[in-house]
Amino acid sequence: MGLNFATDTKGAIPLHVVGQDALDDWMATQPERVAAWVKAAGFSAALGKVLMVPGEDGSLAMAIAGYGTPEARARGRFHLAAVALSLPEGVYRFEGLPEGRAEEEALGWLLAGYVFDRYRTQTAPGAKLVAPEGVEAARLEAIAAGECLTRDLINTPTSDMGPSELEAACVAMAAQHEAEIEVIRGDELLERNFPLIHTVGRAAAPGAAPRLIDMQWGVAGPLLTLVGKGVCFDTGGLNLKPGGSMALMKKDMGGAATVLGLAQMIMELGLPLRLRVLIPAVENAVSGNAFRPGDILTARNGLTVEINNTDAEGRLVLADALAYAAEAEPDFMLSMATLTGAARVAVGPDLAPYFCDDAAFVGAVEQAAAQVADPVWRLPLHLPYEAMIEPGIADLDNAPKGGFAGAITAALFLRRFAGEVRYAHFDVYGWNPEAKPARPKGGVGMGARAILQSLPDVLKA
């Protein structure tokens, strides 16, 4: 199927999109043999179901995609992606798609073509789609490519996606889009005043030394800075995770992967802005020089941090990166991270929770999320909880005791390093635990498409 629309549209097979309540009316408009075929097949137009209809010569003349009921559609998204996987190889064009649904369903069709075949041969589905009329095909293709980059990065295990490989992916992206890139590695982090990034990553093997990746693109327009957590594997450090909790820690760089997917979309579409991407890339490993519970560290901006749990390392590496980003006074700054289990408990794996007090961003991203079927959910930066991240012996506590409001206290911690810059933080999951239309089980982008859609309004505010 691939991530592109069909270029040769001659002879495209009609794919009639029919809701359950409209099936009888639709059949009344069809030749008698078609109506008889549909009745004989017992086709009800249930959501996601498909029926192939042969022509008089036995070849495939058309297909019918069930569009279900409004109530069924409200419980999901990308409904025709399931149909795309059920169709035989060929080129198809939508017929009768309800107004306003073309962009979502066309993008879902593209995303349904994603396969992760690095480690075993997999065949992508062969049904290709003609871009529906009125849809910006190139834009949707760029969005699909960015999303699939995010998926590939998350799905790749740390043996092939450690800090050095994540750096290589950034270098390749910079070369593709003529962006500038600088990488600060190892002990140079201390020399350049990134102590928290160095501390979290110093216990890793020499080939996985900690680093800060800094990519910049564009020469004019407002400055947008994206900061992504790049913890390529998280053992928990000396506060070692149990085996079950470590199983998915290859995805702990999901914030970096999502930021890179978004950056890919922005650069491919040539948006009129200046883009900066900062990724602190580390492996939180265990060795004789690992940082310890009880240590007190001094961050780039001078704030001291008491370490009460070495498994709360993501906010540490982000802190130095955010402080560095804020020094350039961007017009908007955004961080993305697979940061807390508390966010997953609060909203589950489908929603991208975020924290922001900037009214322009909140309004724009909420509207955009509904438009592009990329749901987000705002959580509060509740000021009375500031006291929970202040341990007394240091300015900040990286892991407040008690377990309450873990996602909120993490976001409040990060905001201490964002200065006076307009800022939003996304605490994403980055993983789809079970296959859904257009989203196979595995790594997944969250919030990037909503952010992309919102940028014109956010950056003009």
Write the layout of secondary structure elements.
Blueprint: E1 13-18, H1 23-28, H2 32-41, E2 50-54, E3 60-66, H3 70-73, H4 79-86, E4 90-95, H5 102-111, E5 127-129, H6 137-155, H7 163-177, E6 180-185, H8 188-191, H9 195-201, E7 211-217, E8 223-228, E9 230-234, H10 243-246, H11 254-269, E10 274-284, E11 296-298, E12 304-306, H12 314-327, E13 332-337, H13 341-347, E14 352-355, H14 359-372, E15 376-378, E16 396-397, H15 406-415, E17 423-427, E18 431-432, E19 442-443, H16 448-460
Parallel strand pairs: 1-3, 1-4, 4-5, 8-10, 8-13, 9-10, 12-16, 13-17, 14-15
Antiparallel strand pairs: 2-3, 6-7, 7-10, 11-12, 14-17, 18-19
Distance between the termini: 40 Å
CATH topology of the largest domain: Aminopeptidase
Q: Helical segment tally?
A: 16
**How much helical structure, as a percent, in the residues?**
25-40%
List low-confidence stretches. Answer: none
Summarize it.
The protein is an alpha/beta fold. It is built from 16 helices and 19 strands. It folds into 2 domains: 13-126, Leucine Aminopeptidase, subunit E, domain 1; 141-460, Aminopeptidase, CATH 3.40.630.10.
